[in-house]
Fold this sequence. Notes:
The chain has about 130 residues and is of the alpha/beta class. It is built from 3 helices and 6 strands. Zinc ion (ZN) binds near residues 20, 22, 51, 52 and 54.
Amino acid sequence: MKKDLRLHPEYGVNPTIPVCYICGQNKNEVVLLGAAYKEKAPMHMHLDKIPCDKCNELLKSDVLLIEVRDGESGENPYRTGYITAIRLEVAKRVFEKMDLDKNRIFFIEQSVLKNILGDLYGKETKRKLPDN
Ligand SMILES: [Zn+2]
């Protein structure tokens, strides 16, 4: 990101709160877009593909499956809002042919995810995140 901030003629520093592209939660940061953003910056915005701290922590031990509507594909498929984490050891058995050391974030169609999870679908299992 550029160091110099050119003020937007109408919206000044033009701030926004970046959100995580995986979970959609706020990243607890404020980014000043200034004139780099042509309109008034929305309060929340996806700015990059860098996961938030919580997702980053999960990605050390888990694979994240972002549920999308059946039939959706491409760069930005329609998400249902359901995201689940599967332990890496388990995911390696389920997704044998995928290189999970390279990529641990996947879009998955709702019907496929329901098939994989069975009775566990929609049930939250609480797991404590490792301490920093
Ligand atoms: Zn996140």
